[in-house]
Amino acid sequence: MPKPQIVILGAGPAGLGAAYQLARHKFADVVVLERNPMVGGNAGSHLVAGMPVDFGSHRLHPSCDPEVLADIRELLGDDLMDRPRHGRIRLQGRWIHFPLKPADLAFHLSPSFSLGVLQDTAKKLVGYGKRTSEEQNFATVLSGGLGETITREFYFPYARKIWGLDPEELSPVQGKRRVGANSIAKMFRKALSGISAKKNTGKGRFYYPRFGFGAIAEAYHYAARRAGAQVLLGADVQAVDTCDAQIMGVRYMYQGQERSVPADHVWSTIPLTVLTNLLLPRPPRHLLDAARSLEFRSMILIYAVLAQPRFSEYDAHYFSEEFIPITRLSEPKNYCGGYGPRNRTVLCAELPCSSDDAVWKMTDESLGELLKDSLAKAGIPIQAPVQQIVTRRLRYAYPIYRKCYEEPFRELDRLIGGVGGLLTFGRQGLFAHDNTHHALYMAYSAVKCLDADGRFDLCKWQAFRQIFETHVVED
Ligand SMILES: Cc1cc2nc3c(=O)[nH]c(=O)nc-3n(C[C@H](O)[C@H](O)[C@H](O)COP(=O)(O)OP(=O)(O)OC[C@H]3O[C@@H](n4cnc5c(N)ncnc54)[C@H](O)[C@@H]3O)c2cc1C
To answer: With CB atoms 3.0 to 4.6 Å apart as the test, which of 90, 243, 273, 404 could cross-link to 291 if both were Cys?
Structure first.
């Protein structure tokens, strides 16, 4: 029986995870098409002043599915480090450790904040302020679950910066499923209700590859190639051809020429909205409108190379206040135990924005000034000479769960589900604010749905989709 030809769109963790699993088990002939010259997608790494840096703070969370974690361990060997988390959050002008330590509650939060949280907890116990499901949105879900003080002081301003919307404009899904058990908000609640975050297995630690988070995707890439998968970098997918609702092949630009590849299956991990627009024949107008209504938040990463061995002892600093435009600052050297040049360090600031606003078009010089100004406002000014400012832009950083996004998503999901041989998964593919280990789990699940005849078991996939619904993103 000839093996099916599976063309995978995108070489982020989802695409490469699927390619590796398919190729190593000889289930299919695999071609991966990736538009960038490097693998890893948003979870990749690149060099700045000789140091591997990520696209914003990335950690592999210990809640990773055991099968996926076992593979990552095997692929990376000793290069996968087990590290303690050591971050801090700026709250009302004070710094508290992240993950929260009991002493922070007593000594580092303002008395008014602690009192507010205690009052909120008491109100929750007596069921005060419960809302009906019709009134639900991100704001009501969070304040109902965590109390007004934490949400008002931390999560709402943070949410406005991350998603660019008021909390009332966001779907309750953002609050219910996407504010995780290990998120900053829940952490406050747990700590304040007397449960130390450290008691939970794996909490307070993370895995990190010695040479940058992107080493995970790179390891999958090399392993997939060794197992026989073809991975084309710089291959920009232009069209996905279908005939009578059945997949036919993919057209892409590669080295300045349009090429095509036939396919029995196309597994897409590129943004769902982009995929919809690449389908030929073109989907009806109302579906293209549905694609337009699903939005992704963009992000600029500002890297500053400093002439000093270390900026601070912390891996990440979180900023909720709106007068500080960046949401997080990380120091890559502190993720990998100090690897890198002796007399230099690099900072990475995350600046959420929209790809059609003025911030997106700012020059590197202005973004460098914005970073310096943000850190000065936060009380941690850069004091060493800045040797270089480098920026990177992520057009598709976070899916935005605007209220009522569910219907257009379902319409596109039905459209893709109606094309034989076409599958979409991954963070961008399922419009899921998910971690890397979730994207990899989706990839492994897809491969498990392929039967011995090369047919894709849609019932099994639907069962996996239910599991994906339970994924909760971790900070
Ligand atoms: C700031 C930030 C911090 C994060 N922190 C963490 C963290 O700490 N831990 C964690 O586990 N996760 C984290 N994540 C999430 C993580 O980056 C994603 O879960 C992961 O990248 C998803 O992998 P994916 O393969 O589904 O999608 P992606 O990584 O987005 O890969 C999709 C790929 O498709 C390619 N593509 C798109 N269009 C085309 C086209 N037309 N033709 C060909 N290729 C195309 C893209 O270039 C990309 O390589 C973070 C994300 C962000 C933005």
So the answer is: 273
Instruction: Decide: 297 in ligand 1 pocket, CB within 6 A.
Output: no
**Ligand 1 binding pocket includes 421 (Cβ within 6 Å):** no
Query: Does residue 270 line the site of ligand 1, with CB under 6 A?
Result: yes
pLDDT in tens, 386-395: 999 999 999 9
User: Domains of the chain by range and CATH?
Assistant: 5-45+56-83+210-294+403-468 (3.50.50.60), 96-199 (1.10.3110), 296-399 (3.90.660.20)
Of the CA atoms within 13 Å of residue 326, those in its CB half-sphere come to 30
- pTM exceeds 0.90 for this model: yes
Side-chain-facing half-sphere of 469: CA atoms under 13 Å: 8
Which residue out of 398, 436, 468 has the highest number of ligand 1 atoms within 8 Å of its CB and is therefore the one to mutate?
436
pLDDT tens string 291-323 = 999 999 999 999 999 999 999 999 999 999 999
Please tell me the distance between residue 12's alpha carbon and the centre of ligand 1 in angstroms. 6
Whole-number Å distance between alpha carbons of 415 and 412: 5
Among candidate residues 97, 87, 116, 180, the one with its CA nearest the CA of residue 142: 180
DSSP state of 420: B
Q: Does the beta carbon of 397 lie inside 6 Å of ligand 1?
A: yes
Q: How far is the CA of 36 from the centre of ligand 1 (A)?
A: 12
